[in-house]
UniProtKB/TrEMBL annotation:
Keyword Transmembrane tagged: no
Species classification: Bacteria, Pseudomonadati, Pseudomonadota, Alphaproteobacteria, Rhodobacterales
InterPro entries, alphabetized: Class_I_gatase-like (IPR029062), ThuA-like (IPR029010)
CDD domains: A4_beta-galactosidase_middle_domain (cd03143)
Pfam family, one: ThuA
Domain ThuA-like: from-to ranges: 6-212
Organism: Paracoccus pantotrophus
Keyword match Nucleotidyltransferase: no
Keywords assigned by UniProt, alphabetized: Plasmid
Domain of life: Bacteria
Protein name (database record): ThuA domain-containing protein
């Protein structure tokens, strides 16, 4: 029998179906009976992090403040592992005219996470392909998905496992014009004795998740959550947190 380990799960923010995501992630975690979960909606109780062995986040338009970022960086540097999903790296403000602003995140947080969301085209079909052979992606081939195609700025030093390409416009966003380039979909970022594992697909939205901008939304969006390969990547990420893949960290 394995010793009990605690995982802090932070799920919350704006414009996404956090109830759906929370249940999906809890179902994955429940398959490892020795993992016990502390659940939070934001970063305000990071004292809970000191009681935990691992961190999983699925947030949108919700970033830790300077003090919380410093605590996260210290925890990761001392050996903590952080599995960050989808909008964890997003800081957005929507103007009354609909333009989406993406103010620069604090440098320490950018250095810790290794990327910042800047834009996405209208959710649609795009392709993700392997970049680096690794235990986390062993057997994973290129695949198509319908999701928010995250376009980002990236820090140096990420070990890119899966990536996509994009060229075109994102008319609603502050960064509008995109030359052809690679965008990191799944990567590892070692920091100190620990590290961050980032997976950018995973958009989810229900009919009431765009409030207060609009009362109802016309679609239910499940993005990559309908794909077996996406759930495989989540299981691998949890195994990395649980240190079942020791070769995944230098």
């Amino acid at each position: 029998m394995r010793p009990m380990r605690r995982v802090l799960l932070v799920v919350g923010g704006l414009y996404h179906d956090f109830d759906f995501v929370r249940l999906e992630l809890l179902a994955h975690l429940a398959r490892r009976e020795h993992l016990r979960v502390d659940l939070r909606h934001d970063y305000s109780d990071l004292a809970a992090l000191e009681r935990c062995d691992a961190l999983i986040t699925y947030t949108a338009a919700l970033l830790p403040d300077a003090a919380q970022t410093a605590a996260l960086a210290d925890w990761v540097g001392r050996g903590g592992r952080w599995f960050a999903l989808h909008g964890t790296n997003s800081a957005i403000r929507i103007r009354p005219d609909g333009k989406v602003l993406t103010p620069a995140m604090e440098p320490l947080l950018f250095d810790l996470l290794g990327s910042q969301f800047l834009a996405h085209p209208v959710p649609g079909r795009y392709r993700i392909r392997p970049v680096e052979a690794h235990a986390l992606t062993e057997g994973v081939e290129a695949f198509f998905l319908e999701d928010e195609h995250y376009l980002q700025r990236h820090a140096e030093g990420n070990l890119v496992l899966l990536a996509s390409e994009f060229q075109g416009e994102t008319a609603l966003f502050q960064t509008r014009d995109w030359p052809k380039g690679q965008h990191q979909s799944f990567y590892l970022r070692p920091r100190g004795q620990g590290g961050v594992l980032y997976l950018t697909p995973g958009h989810a939205r229900g009919r009431y998740d765009m409030q207060p901008l609009t009362e109802t939304y016309p679609f239910v969006e499940r993005g990559a959550w309908i794909l077996p390969v996406f759930h495989q990547l989540i299981r691998r990420g949890i195994a990395w947190l649980d240190r079942d893949l020791p070769e995944t960290m230098p």
